[in-house]
Amino acid sequence: MACKNNLVVKQIIDLYDQLSKLESLKPSKNVDTLFGQLVSTCLPTDTNIDVTKMSEEVKDMRSNLIKLCGEAEGYLEQHFSTILGSLQEDENPLDHLHIFPYYDNYLKLSKIEFDLLSQHTSHVPTKIAFVGSGPMPLTSIVLAKFHLPNTTFHNFDIDSHANTLASSLVSRDPDLSNRMIFHTTDVLNANEGLDQYDVVFLAALVGMDKEAKVKAIEHLEKHMAPGAVLMLRSAHALRAFLYPIVDSSDLKGFQLLTIYHPTDDVVNSVVIARKLGGSITAGVNGTRGCMFMPCNCSKVHAIMNNRCKKKMMIEEFSAIE
Ligand SMILES: C[S@@+](CC[C@H](N)C(=O)[O-])C[C@H]1O[C@@H](n2cnc3c(N)ncnc32)[C@H](O)[C@@H]1O
Questions:
Q1: pTM of the full predicted structure?
Q2: Which SUPFAM superfamilies has this protein been placed in (predicted)?
Q3: Closest ligand 1 atom to 162 CA
């Protein structure tokens, strides 16, 4: 297994060397091909690689690679959001989201996040905050369109251009134009109002290294309502070369509920936690949204749990003081 690990790490280093030498990370045949190779190299989960135990040189390469991936992801979203936003007036951009190369991944990732959310909360959230929503706020859009038809999504992004592109994506949709709100701010400056959300999502690309990620989580812990749910994205095994890892130790002040590691082509792991001090039955500030109606979700959870427990891909946790 060791030599196989060394080989795959060497392939990742080689791809990093090629990417780091590129003039631009904006979408092009070469950039798309290299990132496609990188993602497929990092997808296998049948490996015991722990990126935190690698040499300093590999750790440095990893932190630079994560930043390159984040920059390229931003350009990719900007590229397709601009195309969609420039469709003629009688076209609804939300009817053409499939042109985004990773749209299917977002459909699957948002379904995992919705299922975990309905497993850990007894009420349909009325207001959700998504921090780091980007030019293509696909998580909010997919959740709003397919899973939470009565929930309002407040999307926070540090980049005003990202919000301009994102709001023009939804502006022609009769439903989502009323349920998607955009705020331009660094999450670290978002103080008042974060306690009004039943659920806060933190994008994988907010906090690109451990220190920045923990800073963002600590800020959210300070301002979220007791009992509110924090949904984060992490990475597992080789996928940790693409995204930062969120550990249980990063979540002080929260009860870590579940970490779910996909084994298919959904790259991110999903982490769900609840801010300590609240009740799991009421919404935030004691509001009570309507109940999650019993549906096949519980069966889905059972399947998820059984399937994942067997492969140890789902972990339950107790409260962290
Ligand atoms: C490219 S998007 C990815 C999220 C993806 N669109 C989704 O729907 O899941 C990540 C966004 O996070 C934003 N971001 C990074 N750091 C941030 C911060 N400290 N506060 C707010 N937004 C931030 C970036 O500007 C970027 O647009």
A1: 0.89
A2: S-adenosyl-L-methionine-dependent methyltransferases
A3: 27
Q: Which CATH number fits domain 102-316: 3.40.50.150, 1.20.1250.20, 1.10.287.770, 3.30.390.30?
A: 3.40.50.150
Distance (Å, rounded) from C-alpha 138 to C-alpha 154?
Answer: 13
Pocket test for ligand 1, best of 205, 211, 232 (most atoms within 8 A of CB): 205
Q: Measure the CA–CA gap between 200 and 308, rounded to whole angstroms.
A: 25
- The pLDDT value recorded for residue 6 is 83
Location of structure tokens 């500030």: 285
Q: How far is CA 16 from CA 6, 84, 229, 245, 282, in A?
A: 15, 30, 36, 19, 47
pLDDT band at 288 (very low <50, low <70, confident <90, very high): very low
- Mean pLDDT, range 236-254, rounded to an integer: 96
Residues 14/71/178/219 CA torsion (nearest 10 deg): 100
pLDDT in tens, 23-65: 999 999 999 999 999 999 999 988 888 999 999 999 999 999 9
Scanning the structure block, which residue is given the tokens 């951009």? 93
Q: How far is ligand 1, taken at its centre, from the CA of residue 178, in Å?
A: 21
